[in-house]
């Protein structure tokens, strides 16, 4: 090798090494904590907390919490009572991620009660990250999940009523704002947990946007959009109209902003500002919400519109429900 080539090679290696940030060590021991989106995050956190309080790890905790949201309640936006797509199919999206980068996800999954557990099996038992549609369903059945119809009579009735207008119009916090006759037509549980060993995990599970096109996949099963976790920094998750998170790789963005030194709250605000900057007009009439926690257990949130709440659970407070700040304080009707 010529001395010039050797010189170039070693200076490029030096430059590359200089560009790599020094890895921060994962804290040896810390206070456990779990946070989740929305008010149903309170009981979901409790399930996760049981795992953490017993010394369990963050991955088992978020799976337990998300499983509760999928079947322990019956709402219109997560799991088996979720509202269907415009053709009447209930299709579920979910992802799970550990702070070491391992992750799994399913999208447009039908007939299976616990998409979050199928996502975990994708992570642990396949060489892939994301399985979709019929392939995801077949994989779930092969793994022992029992298929059954998830469309409840209430969801069926809501769908038939919707068919009369067939207008796709995501409402901002519809039920929470008391819009008569309106149940939420979207809201996802995104959960982040910090284990006592300082390691983090996250889960995100949803039935997606009610009355979406058949085959539509939102942000929740897309690593980096609806969920991202990195043990060196922290984690972020999202709820709201998923197309905005997909456009902005939003949960990844929140984590990267934290990596640059921002607090979780400021990082969430930074990602919301990016959403507004990209589509200022559209952002006035749709909801986008971020929730983040860093490896020190600091938590923050930010939303486009007022009304986003998130649940926090640790040794000091089990059932805290906090209101997120937002860009717009009055919501357009
Ligand atoms: C989606 N982000 O499928 C989900 C839905 C949601 O509040 O969270 N809505 O786009």
TrEMBL record:
GO MF annotations, alphabetized: hydrolase activity, acting on carbon-nitrogen (but not peptide) bonds, in linear amides
UniProt KW Signal keyword: yes
Superkingdom, taxonomy of origin: Bacteria
Signal sequence annotation: 1-25
Xref: Gene3D superfamilies: (Glycosyl)asparaginase (3.60.20.30)
Site location (Cleavage): 187-188
Keywords: Signal
InterPro entries named among the record's database cross-references: Ntn_hydrolases_N, Peptidase_T2, TAT_signal
Record bears the keyword Disulfide bond: no
Name recorded for this polypeptide: N(4)-(Beta-N-acetylglucosaminyl)-L-asparaginase
């Amino acid at each position: 090798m010529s001395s010039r080539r050797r010189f170039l090679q070693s200076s490029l290696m030096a430059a590359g090494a200089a560009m790599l940030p020094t890895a921060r060590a994962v804290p040896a021991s810390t206070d456990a904590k779990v946070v989740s989106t929305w008010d149903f995050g309170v009981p979901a956190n409790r399930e996760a907390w049981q795992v953490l309080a017993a010394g369990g790890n963050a991955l088992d905790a978020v799976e337990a919490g998300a499983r509760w949201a999928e079947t322990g309640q019956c709402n219109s936006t997560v799991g088996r009572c979720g509202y269907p797509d415009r053709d009447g199919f209930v299709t579920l999206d979910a992802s799970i991620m550990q702070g070491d980068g391992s992750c799994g996800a399913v999208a447009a999954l039908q007939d299976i009660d616990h998409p979050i557990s199928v996502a975990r099996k994708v992570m642990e038992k396949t060489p892939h990250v994301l399985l979709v549609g019929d392939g995801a369903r077949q994989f779930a059945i092969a793994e022992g999940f029992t298929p059954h119809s998830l469309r409840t009579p209430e969801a069926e009735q809501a769908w038939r009523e919707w068919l009369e207008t067939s207008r796709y119009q995501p409402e901002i916090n519809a039920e929470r704002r008391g819009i008569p006759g309106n149940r939420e037509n979207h809201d996802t549980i995104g959960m982040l947990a910090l284990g006592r060993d300082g390691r983090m995990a996250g889960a995100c599970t949803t039935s997606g946007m009610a009355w979406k096109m058949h085959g539509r996949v939102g942000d929740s099963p897309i690593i980096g959009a609806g969920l991202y976790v990195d043990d060196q920094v922290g984690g972020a998750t999202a709820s709201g109209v998923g197309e905005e998170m997909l456009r902005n790789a939003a949960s990844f963005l929140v984590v990267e902003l934290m990596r640059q030194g921002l607090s979780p709250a400021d990082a969430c605000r930074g990602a919301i500002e990016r959403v507004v900057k990209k589509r200022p007009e559209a952002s006035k009439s749709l909801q986008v919400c971020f929730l983040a926690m860093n490896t020190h257990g600091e938590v923050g949130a930010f939303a486009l519109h007022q009304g986003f709440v998130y649940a926090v659970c640790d040794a000091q407070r089990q059932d805290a429900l906090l209101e997120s700040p937002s860009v717009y304080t009055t919501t357009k009707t």
